[in-house]
C-alpha cells in the first residue's frame, strides 16, 4: 500500500505546479438559487487577485493583492487600506487570511524573498495590525500558502510549493498567545511538474472524511496534466493519506479554489448538528475559455456533480477565483473574481465581482 501510494503521489504531483487547466469534460446541470454578478465592494478596489475573506465574531475581514502589489484589507465592508501601511507588504501572489488563534484574524503572504510572512489584526476597522513576521526560513515558496486550522490539534497547517518543485509544510502552534513554528518539512513525494514562478490560488479545507471515519485535510490543486486533484492528509501531522483526481474532467488555466459550508470553526462528525451542511463543498477555477467554472459536492469533496458555468452572464478572469461560506449564515457560497475587462465591459477591468450560490 505504501509503495503504491507513493507512486500515485509522484505521478499526480508531477502535475501540481503547472496550473495549466482548461475546463473540459461534460458540464453538470445548472444549480438553483444564484444571484446575478454584482460588484463585491461598490467598485472601490482594483486588484491583481480575487478577494479572500474570513468571518470572526460577526465581523468580516477581506484581503487582496492590489495593482501596486501590496496587500490591501477592509473590515466589515468598509474602505480598503494597505495592510500595515503603504508598501509594507509587497507580493506577487494572492494573500490568504484565516482565524488563528481563535478570535483573531491572521493574514499570510509569500514575501518577495520567497518566505512566508504573517500579520495579525489587533483592533478591527483601524489599521492596527502587527508588524509582519517571517516564519522560519526554508519555505522558498514559489506560490501562495495554503492554510487550514486543524480541528484535531488547533494548530495552523501551512503548505507552500517550494523552489525545488516540492511541497513544504509547517505547523504554527499557539502556546499561551505565543506562536511557534514546527519548522519546514519537505514532502519528497510531492514532485512538482514545473518551476513556474508563481503557483497561485490552490486551496485546502478541514472536513470530516467519511472514507476514513475522521477529520481530514483536503487540498485541491491544479496540475500540469490539466486536471484538478484532491490530496487528503492527516490533520495531526500532515502525512498524505490519498491522492486522487477529482471527477468531472476539469481542465483549468488557474489554480482551484475550494470552500465548505457550515460552521467554519469546527468539523462535525456524522450524527452531529451541521454535518450534512459541512459536507457541501464548492470548487471553482478559470477554464480554457477564460471564464469561471464551478462544481459542487455533497459528500465532503469525494465526488462532484460536474463542472458548469455559474448562471447568468459569463464571468471572465485571468486569476484564480475565491469562494468562501457566506458570513453569518454559512449556508451559501460567495464566489468572487478579478474581472477581465478585456473580455467583457460589464464591469471595470481588475474590479472585484461576486455572486452568491446556494
Describe this structure in words.
Mean pLDDT is 85; it is low at 1-30. Strands 10, 11, 12, 13 and 14 form a 5-stranded antiparallel beta sheet that branches. This protein has helices spanning 2-13, 275-278, and strands spanning 38-39, 52-56, 59-65, 71-75, 81-82, 96-99, 105-110, 116-120, 133-134, 146-149, 156-161, 167-175, 178-181, 185-187, 203-209, 214-222, 228-233, 240-245, 257-260, 281-286, 292-297, 322-325, 333-338, 352-357. By secondary structure, the protein is mostly beta strands. The chain is built from 2 helices and 24 strands. Helices cover 4% and strands 35% of the residues.
List the secondary-structure elements in sequence, H or E: HEEEEEEEEEEEEEEEEEEEHEEEEE
Let me know the largest β-sheet. 5 strands, antiparallel
Q: What is the CA-CA span between the terminal residues?
A: 39 Å
Radius of gyration: 19 Å
Unreliable runs: 1-30
Amino acid at each position: 500500500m505504501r509503495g503504491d501510494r507513493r507512486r500515485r503521489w509522484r505521478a499526480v504531483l508531477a502535475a501540481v505546479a503547472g496550473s495549466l487547466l482548461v475546463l473540459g469534460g461534460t458540464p453538470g446541470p445548472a444549480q438553483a438559487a444564484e444571484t446575478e454578478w454584482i460588484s463585491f465592494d461598490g467598485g472601490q478596489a482594483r486588484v491583481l487577485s480575487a478577494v479572500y475573506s474570513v468571518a470572526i465574531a460577526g465581523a468580516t475581514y477581506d484581503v487582496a493583492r492590489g495593482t501596486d502589489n501590496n496587500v490591501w484589507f477592509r473590515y466589515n465592508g468598509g474602505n480598503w487600506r494597505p495592510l500595515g501601511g503603504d508598501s509594507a507588504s509587497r507580493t506577487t501572489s494572492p494573500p490568504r487570511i484565516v482565524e488563528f488563534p481563535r478570535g483573531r484574524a491572521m493574514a499570510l503572504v509569500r514575501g518577495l524573498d520567497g518566505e512566508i510572512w504573517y500579520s495579525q489584526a489587533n483592533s478591527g476597522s483601524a489599521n492596527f495590525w502587527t508588524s509582519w513576521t517571517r516564519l522560519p526560513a526554508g519555505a522558498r515558496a514559489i506560490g501562495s500558502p495554503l492554510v487550514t486550522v486543524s480541528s484535531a490539534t488547533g494548530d495552523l497547517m501551512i503548505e507552500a510549493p517550494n523552489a525545488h518543485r516540492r511541497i513544504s509544510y509547517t505547523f504554527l502552534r499557539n502556546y499561551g498567545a505565543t506562536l511557534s513554528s514546527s519548522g519546514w518539512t519537505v514532502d519528497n513525494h510531492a514532485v512538482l511538474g514545473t518551476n513556474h514562478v508563481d503557483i497561485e490560488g490552490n486551496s485546502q479545507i478541514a472536513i470530516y472524511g467519511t472514507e476514513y471515519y475522521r477529520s481530514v485535510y483536503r487540498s485541491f490543486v491544479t496540475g500540469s496534466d490539466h486536471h484538478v486533484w484532491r490530496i487528503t492528509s492527516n490533520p495531526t501531522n500532515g502525512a498524505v493519506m490519498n491522492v486522487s483526481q477529482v471527477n468531472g474532467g476539469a481542465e483549468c488555466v488557474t489554480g482551484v479554489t475550494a470552500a465548505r459550508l457550515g460552521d467554519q470553526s469546527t468539523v462535525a462528525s456524522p450524527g452531529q448538528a451541521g454535518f450534512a451542511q459541512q459536507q457541501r463543498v464548492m470548487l471553482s477555477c478559470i477554464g480554457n475559455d477564460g471564464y469561471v467554472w464551478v462544481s459542487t459536492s455533497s459528500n465532503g469533496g469525494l465526488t462532484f456533480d460536474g463542472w458548469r458555468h455559474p448562471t447568468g452572464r459569463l464571468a471572465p478572469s485571468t486569476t484564480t477565483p475565491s469562494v468562501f461560506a457566506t458570513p453569518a449564515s454559512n449556508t451559501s457560497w460567495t464566489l468572487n473574481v478579478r474581472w477581465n475587462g478585456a473580455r467583457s465591459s460589464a464591469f471595470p477591468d481588475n474590479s472585484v465581482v461576486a455572486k452568491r450560490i446556494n
